[in-house]
Amino acid sequence: MNKLKIWCNAHLPEDLAKHLEESVAPHQLIWSSSLHKSNLASSGSDPQALSADIIYGQPAPEDLISSTTLKWVHLTTAGYTRYDNDAVRNALRSRSAILTNSSTVFADPCAEHILAFMLAQARLLPPMFVNDATMHGWPYLETRGGSRLLRCQSALLVGFGAIARRLVELLKPFEMKLSAMRRKVVGDEPIRTVTTADLSDVLGEHDHVINILPAAPGTTKLFDGKTFSRMKRGAIFYNVGRGDTVDQDALCDALESKHIAAAYLDVTSPEPLSPEHRLWHVPNCWITPHTAGGHDREVQVNVAHFLDNLRRYLNGRHLKDRVM
């Protein structure tokens, strides 16, 4: 195979950047003039990206459309909303180019984050942490009596990709009744799975509703006032997908009315959320700042995922996490 040009705009630690350069050799690694530490950031158009055979990072969508050399794009994120449009799809299709993402990189941390949310709620940890930091009381009877077990409760996973599949594995020991919703039921799902059209029919059956949906056509404010009203009274709502999928005022209303017992959010709209936002002040709403996918070796695992896919690409094998 001829020497390939690989463009990257991910800001990596010096030792990891050197490892990436050595690992792609003899192919050429081209660093963007604008590097980003955050996976959620993106560069503007870069002339060097236009001449690349492979792109790794968060390129400008217009560069994917304008390039005449591009063969494969590997995103450092699981989300790919900016690229999920006809202009990009048609451009990639016209040159038989591939787009992959890093979904499997974030499956473990996001699934563990959701499980941590669920256990925290069941064992009433958030109010106990608040008590520890402020009042220093000893609410023994109410906390002991109000704590619950996950065992034999029910949960609905809205969205069924790599994160949801890993979460199903983590929840297996709790013997929970699990269901999932996805756009199209494939048939290989390990739990009962329904389509979007059936969502309203199954919402009221579950103690936990876990939103893992990406931002995409058809998901904007899917969770609105009507959706929340159809959930079981006292259910817990979680969002580790995207903030745009939730009508946040409707969620606040559902929390204030106590129809929803609690909400655990890792994503909001906008991000960061202003200190004055209503979500900070409604009862039983607990927020983490879009950290569910993170851990101490996140960047190393991301690079390893790309290098594994690069070996697959060079050997003509199926690429992991292909989305286009």
Question: How is the secondary structure organized here?
Answer:
Layout: E1 5-10, H1 14-24, E2 28-36, H2 47-50, E3 54-57, H3 61-66, E4 72-75, H4 86-94, E5 98-100, H5 103-122, H6 125-133, H7 140-146, E6 154-158, H8 162-171, E7 177-181, E8 192-194, H9 199-202, E9 208-211, H10 225-230, E10 235-239, H11 248-256, E11 260-265, E12 285-287, H12 298-314
Parallel strand pairs: 1-2, 1-3, 3-4, 4-5, 6-7, 6-9, 7-8, 9-10, 10-11, 11-12
Helix pairs in contact: 1-12, 5-8
CATH homologous superfamily classification of the largest domain? NAD(P)-binding Rossmann-like Domain
Could you report the average pLDDT, rounded to the nearest whole number?
96
Largest sheet: 7 strands, parallel
Pattern of helices and strands: EHEHEHEHEHHHEHEEHEHEHEEH
Strand ordering within the main sheet: 8-7-6-9-10-11-12
The count of helical stretches stands at 12
**Low-pLDDT ranges:** none
Question: Can you walk me through this structure?
Answer:
This protein has 324 residues and is of the alpha/beta class. The protein folds into two domains: 5-101 and 296-314, Rossmann fold, CATH 3.40.50.720; 107-287, Rossmann fold. The chain contains twelve helices and twelve strands. It has helices at residues 14-24, 47-50, 61-66, 86-94, 103-122, 125-133, 140-146, 162-171, 199-202, 225-230, 248-256, 298-314; strands at 5-10, 28-36, 54-57, 72-75, 98-100, 154-158, 177-181, 192-194, 208-211, 235-239, 260-265, 285-287. Strand 1 (5-10), helix 1 and strand 2 (28-36) form a beta-alpha-beta unit.
